[in-house]
Amino acid sequence: MTNHWIDYQHSDVIMAIGVNTAENHPMSMRWIERARAKGARLISVDPRLTRTAAVADIWLPLRPGTDIALLGGLINYALENDLFHREYVVHYTNASYILRADYAFSDGVFSGLEGGKYNTQSWQYELDDEGRPLQDPTLQHPRCVFQVLKKHYSRYDRDTVCKITGCNPADFDKVAATYCATGKPGKAGNILYAMGITQSTHGTQNVRAIAILQLLLGNIGIPGGGVNAQRGEANVQGSTDMAMLFHLLPGYLNMPQAKDHATLADYLAKETPASGYWSNKPKFFISLLKAWWGDAATADNEYCYHWLPKLDGRNRSHMAIFDAMQQGEIRGMFVWGQNPAVGGPNAEYERKALEKLDWMVAVDIFETETASFWRRPGVNPTDIKTEVFLLPAAASYEKEGTVSNSGRWIQWRYQAVAPPGQAKSDLWIADKLYKAIRAAYQQDGVFPDPIVNLHWNYGGEGEEEPDIEQVALEINGYDADGRPLRDFTLLRDDGATACGCWIYSGYYNDLEDPPAKRRIREEQGIGTNPDWAFAWPLNRRILYNRCSSDPRGKPWNSQVPLIWWEDGQWRMNDVPDFGWKDILPEQSAKAPFIMLPELQARLFSPTVADGPLPEHYEPVESPVKNLLSSQQHNPVVTFLPCLGKLAVTDEYPYIGTTYRVSEHWQSGIMTRNSPWLAELAPEMFVEISTRLADSLGIANGDKVVVTTPRGQIQAVAYVTRRLKPLAVNGQMVEIVGMPWHWGYRGLFPGDSANVLTPHVGDPNTSIPEYKAFLCNIRRA
Amino acid sequence: MANIVLIDTRKCMACRGCQVACKDWNQLPAGVTKFRGTYTNPLTLQPHTWTHLVFTETDQGRWLFAKYACMHCTDAACVEVCPLGAVRRLKNGTVWHDADKCAGCGLCVEQCPFNVPRINKFTRVMGKCTGCAERTMNGLQPACVATCPSGALEYGERKELLAKARARVEELQEQGFDQACLYGETEMGGLGRVYILTRPPAEYGLPENPQPAASAWFWRAAKGPLRKLASLTLVSGAMFSLLRWRAERIQGKRGDQKAV
Ligand code: SF4
Ligand code: SF4
Questions:
Q1: Is A300 in a helix, a strand, or coil?
Q2: Which site among A67, A244, B178, B241 is 20 to 30 Å from B159 CA-CA?
Q3: Which among A24, A58, A679 is the top mutation candidate for probing chain B, defined by the most B β-carbons within 10 Å of its own β-carbon?
Q4: Over the stretch A214-233, which tens digit does the pLDDT of each residue have?
Q5: Nearest CA-CA distance, residue A635 and chain B, Å
Q6: Which ligand number lies closest to the CA of residue B110?
Q7: Domain limit, last residue, from A229, A264, A296
Q8: Does any CB of chain A come closer than 8 Å to the CB of residue B31?
Q9: What domain range includes position A741?
Q10: What's the number of domains chain A is made of?
């Protein structure tokens, strides 16, 4: 999130789109209720009347996968009705930048499409003689970003949007008027999103559309505003920060590519922008190499850069890994706190792919469906050669360490109880594993250097638990004498500092009183609680906070001032996210987005793989034609070779969508093994409208079978008025809603919804399209 | 001084944290349930489920949520009828049930207008919400209140919370909930669980004008002598089997969802 949970209390309007905040993030409702006590409104955009929609002031049902159409409609509404925040847009965004003359968009395709990929050259700014982008602060130039944006979204008029999304026009008007009213200076609109937005073949663009709307309405960098991703697991923010994604290193540094980054100098030259805070990248990167290889990393050996694995240009995301496994390219696998046999798309395909492994090590607190794929229903264990090891892990309360919440707050958690039996903490397992591998390489092995020279000093002799504080210190960063660094502004690119994740630097800078362990409630203030845990970066609670005040430094909302200029000096309720020392307001107003080379926010983004502006495309499996262009789906969508047959409407007429419920968590392996929770939601069910149920002769509580070309599942039908067919361009479209928490293991087993979902993904992130696919349903 | 729990259904998002917190604090076992075409589960209160969330889909397409448990009535029918004094009203308003004294006779089951008490057929003991008296007598909130994330549940002094509740109803009416109302202010002499509702009580399945069953007068009158009888061990054996027989009859009659 740009903001944080407690900050929701300052919102005037909260729009939850592609997120079920009440069900999946119940604590959020505490702060949303605080805001509502002051008159705020909650809008829920969701195909189903969820628990969020039930308590919301406005519920807007829309067809799964059509978020860009809706958000584009809202962008158009704000622009057409002059509800956008002009002063904010002119000063803090790239609205005034003039684009190159060869930028074009026609019939759903941007200029530069070549062989299934975009060449982004024509999406760049027109530059002056000195290489600076040309600008028109009056926003009149026909090629300025503002005019291009306006023209692009003029096609998203209300009627078109409602035809695509299935929204009722009157409801659309209500949402548009309510939400776009936050464009008024001093008003705060907050957009919450989660997997309903991201799990799409245009997921990145869905998020971009949210960001554009928020920028136009002046809702970024202000209390109560923001683009707020609610992360679905307690520490998924932390694992993203720590580079659980294949293309990243910790702290959002790109993974080196073998082709482009042969040497450290190549990497730094190509990856470091000339302006913006990322110009410090060499300091972050070299400090990371120092953290990993310690004294072995020197200027002479390029800080061991050549010991880092490099990407070979192939997609190595989740779906691609299983494809490679299916091809026999992967022989062994660690599955650590993950359950792809339930959570992965096309789950039965992924289970089958596991059979190709020679060995698998599963580390989890229960025997998951993945760990037991070799004895799943319908297979004969003797046919499967994979050797499977199950290492029992400690649960979160049985070990010590931090979790990073969606608001970027890194909070220390202490061990409450010892793990049962032979269960061990992840750190213990990783430590012993490393030491065993190192011992093996010390004997013999190909290219042992990166392994045997790893800087690994966390104690943990023999059976002992390693010292997690040493890990924390490494992540925080330390100087040549091993003293913790105050923060990342002290990092150096000459090997004098080490730091395991630059954005975390400062969270553990005092070994006696580390900020991540602090628990001091704010006595008075606006809820930033600076002494409660540590928010990366630099304990900053709201990102881009220069935008909370006008260019002269006067807060847009003086009731909740964040950082403002008063009596000739900066006053602050947060850590500034801009250069402020000895810098006057007007000057700092020119650079409120320090992470971007432009230093201003991008309404138009020249770097996104599938276009500089979000455009509506149908999900890869959709029951209708794209009404906006003849480009049916995202032209650069990630298709995986294993995809197989896509569903067609004749055989699979209904939209399938997956989601979670309050009572279960992710693949359900923890909650289905917890009797108190399983009692509340004991069986796999699917939700269908009364109309669909009537037409198929399905009664509430009947057993049904849901099918797609990938497979079929059984479930109990929940016939409900909470899910209504939507009128899409005159055609009634039915939706089959299904939670994805069940699998064949645990106390309360059931079929997995992901047996049905396809292997297609977003071109930027390869996230699978779980939220909109085609299916059929019948009585069992 | 009587305390109550104020339940603001407008703020309740049906997370069921309260339902689980109750089981956790009171260490009640889980039942083996089925999905029966509604999120409500178990469908009714059980000997080991003392509170549950009731999800109601209305014809107008609304989805209403209300936490349901013993109401801790001021004029509690169960207290009136219990021949063994196993149910009594504590000073802070809690209707407390003493399992050690309970014979599982089921008189309370029949009398309660809210269909709350349940007899555990194995232990022969009635089970219902105890109001977490052991917590509230020691300065803590009931477990359900302490866990509620959204602030839908509040525990406190009856007068104060009623004033707050009235203001809240007015506020909701101003917001367009023209049917917003209070429930529990006067029912059964005043309930220890007061609801702020946005729709008429019947839509949540709450009885419009709750009354103890008609035979309550008999038990009220008979209670004194019966109690004396029960204390005579000889007689009490016979009494117990009589009461047990009644309990079985009631269980058969109610046909609640089976949970093991
Ligand atoms: S804990 Fe609170 S919000 Fe959750 S179901 Fe219970 S009363 Fe409702
Ligand atoms: S609700 Fe029923 S069990 Fe609870 S106090 Fe009232 S009469 Fe007794």
A1: coil
A2: B178
A3: A679
A4: 999 999 999 999 999 999 88
A5: 39
A6: 2
A7: A229
A8: yes
A9: 638-779
A10: 2
